[in-house]
Amino acid sequence: MQLIMYRTPSLAGSVTAGRHLLYRELVRLCRTLGNTVGALIVGLLLASPTTLAAGATHNVLVLYANGRLLPANIAGDRGLLEGFEARPDRPVTLATEFLDQTRFSGEDYERTFVTYLSEKYAALPPDVIIAGATEALDFMLRHRAELFPRTPIVHMSVTSAYLQSVSPLPDDVFGTPLTYDFVGTVEQALRWHPTASRLALVTGTNPWDREWEATLRARVADLRSGLALDFMAGLPAGELQQRLRNLPEDTIVFTPGFFRDGTGREFTPREAGRMIAAASSAPVYTIFSSFLGTGIVGGRMANYDEMGRMGARTALALIDGTPPAAMKLPATTPTPLQVDWRQLQRWGISPQAVPAGAIVHFREPTLWQAYRNQVLIGSAVMLLQAGLIVALLFERRRRRRTVAALARSEQHMRLAARAASLSTWVLEDDTADPTGRERGASKFDVATGPLVDFRENLAQIAPQDRPGVDAALRDALDSNGEFEIEYRIAAPDGGWRWHAARGRADSGQAPRLLGVAIDITERKLAEIQAEQDRAALYHMTRVSLLGQLSASIAHQLNQPLASILGNAEAAQKMLEREPVDVPELREICADIVAEDHRAAQVIRRLGVLFKRGDPLFEPLDINELVRDTIEFTRSILTTRHVNVVTNFAPSLPPVSGDRVQLQQLVLNLIVNASDAMAALPEHERVLTIETGCRTDAVSLCVKDRGPGVAPIAMNKLFEPFWSTKPGGMGMGLAVCRSIAEAHRGSLTVSDAPGGGAEFCTLLPVRNVG
Ligand code: ADP
């Protein structure tokens, strides 16, 4: 309950100085009334000011026992600032004073300082006072009544020995006592230096130093027995350094530092510590964290920064009005073992010997820690380089293999080209003229020799083949595609050689064509010869066919000739009679002319069939062609008593064909069919001709009722010179099939459904496009 008494003034004080005093009075009233009742009254009365005070700035006065530059003060101050800055919701105004008691002391000085403080802070009294170090708290406690009697005090870095000496402390004085762990420090040092048999203790001459000397003399009793002690108290710095340099082996040194040496020279304990560590031939230990970095090994020491932070937290808790119990102040200030890593190295103390939880300062980073990034980058670069080298080696090996494979392949190709009399050529062209006639560089590589200029080659092409060659090359270049051409080239003997070239456009940077050419003169001549032979064969079979039809032809000619003769004789007789019947005579003449035309037409048809010449492809109506052919064979069919039945598909699409050749084909099939039915009774001799339309083709089928074709003969039928007829040539069907194939069609035989044979030819429909 007492806490409320302190909470109130701290809040009130932040409002105004006047209100501050009023709250003080209220607090006093509470004390007289008793804690419980007081707490209630203050709580009720101050509910509103508390709210008003929230967020206002509070005054905190820090009083340090020593001077401003004492490292312990600097560290403590730093901790205080950090602690206050951690609470931006509780802004405080810090005022700091330094008693500097190691240099200034005495009654007059203290009086002056009290006056100074009371006058300075009269208008702006502190809400909380923080006393840094024992002498500061002692000063505040002694002069509290004159200064700020009701302002709570937070102490830090105050020894528990002092606190015990002034016990009991007033209720509004808070803090965590500090016990310098001299014994713990020396014991740790002895663990690290197990052979140490001597302890040197260094102190100075001013009162604080003397007090430390006294403390140490008292505390050494707690150390293990058998340790030789060497008190170097109040020595002049020079002598001290000398003695420290010549310390016997197996000595360890302990010092709290000092403010003044034997000559009266002033030091800060930290400076003294630095000097001692520098001179000492033995490891030096202390209990002040501010000495770390001066060359001392370490010790169990409180952290001044942490003490500052703790002081700030306690002050803020008071401002917040936190009850003391809830503040959870530690019973003592922690004094963890702290060491300088470099000194551990220097004195050969293994890092493993440092207990867990110890704070190690100045740990020198390992090479890895210090140069981690450089090492990583360096390694990465090296790895990258190694990778690059491997890749390059691999690439070189691959390239060598490729080159070797290419050479092999080229050799094979040359061999193959030589064997096939092939020549390879490249036509490089940077102009629009694919033939390279104007500017393009072109090369013709005869497989057995060097590349030659292809332009010369092109220039030798037969004029009639040149447009076709140019067009094919240009198309290939334009479409980036392939080409295949045959052309004639002027031979040195004045004749022509046939060449076939095949190639493709190479989609490189510049347009060019790659290809091979081969001399095909022999093949071409053979083809031409074969074509001529075929034409001759066609002609021969046609003539032989016409031989068979001679009776029919004679019959067809006889009829008009007989009619002409009869009419001519009748005309003669009429002319002998008077008067001449002119109209009758005219009619007779007209008949003669008509019959003569008929005879002429028969002869013309025959002439066409007998004619020998190159095939001429034209659009043909197959129905009409079949009708015409039947006319030819009419008399032979009549003589042989063969009935013809036609079944024509209406409006057939035209086919592209040679009229004479296709007539020959139909003629042959009709004659064969009538031959096949020769042995049948007359009324059974029926020949059926059908035309039809299939997908993209016209069909023409000739069907008879003869004995049909034996299975064994089915494959042989179309072979040349295969005949079952006495005196038969066996060329008819072979010629028919080659005619069909020359028209990109086919000719097949099958058994007719009602018996007999059925020959069908399929001819592709003429492609109009
Ligand atoms: P040729 O008529 O001179 O024998 P073809 O090549 O025209 O020569 O005919 C070859 C053979 O095919 C004939 O000898 C005959 O045996 C057979 N053949 C042809 N047409 C028919 C058919 N319509 N019926 C049965 N066999 C046929």
Number of helices: 25
Can you summarize the main beta sheet?
A: 6 strands, antiparallel
Low-confidence stretches: 1-54, 430-452
CATH level-two architecture of the largest domain: 2-Layer Sandwich
How much is the radius of gyration in Å? 67 Å
- The helix-and-strand class reads alpha/beta
Count of domains: 6
Measured by DSSP, the beta-strand proportion falls in 15-25%
List of distinct ligands in this structure: adenosine-5'-diphosphate
CATH third-level topology of the largest domain: Heat Shock Protein 90
Q: Can you tell me the CATH superfamily of the largest domain? A: Histidine kinase-like ATPase, C-terminal domain
How many β-strand runs? 25
Cα separation of the termini: 115 Å
Shape: rod-shaped
Q: Class of the largest domain, according to the CATH hierarchy?
A: Alpha Beta
Please describe the topology of this protein.
Elements: H1 3-13, H2 17-33, H3 35-45, H4 47-53, E1 58-64, H5 71-85, E2 92-98, H6 107-120, E3 128-132, H7 134-143, E4 153-156, H8 160-165, E5 173-175, H9 182-192, E6 198-203, H10 207-219, E7 228-233, H11 237-245, E8 251-254, H12 269-279, E9 284-285, E10 298-300, H13 304-320, H14 324-327, E11 337-340, H15 341-346, E12 359-361, H16 367-370, H17 372-419, E13 422-428, E14 442-446, E15 451-453, H18 454-459, H19 466-479, E16 482-490, E17 496-506, E18 512-519, H20 521-548, H21 550-576, H22 582-610, E19 617-620, H23 622-639, E20 643-647, E21 655-658, H24 659-676, E22 686-694, E23 697-703, H25 732-742, E24 746-751, E25 757-764
Parallel strand pairs: 1-2, 1-3, 3-4, 4-5, 6-7, 6-8, 8-9, 11-12, 20-22
Antiparallel strand pairs: 10-11, 13-14, 13-18, 14-15, 16-17, 17-18, 19-21, 22-23, 23-25, 24-25
Helix pairs in contact: 1-2, 2-3, 5-13, 11-12, 21-22, 21-23, 23-24, 24-25
Bound molecules: adenosine-5'-diphosphate.
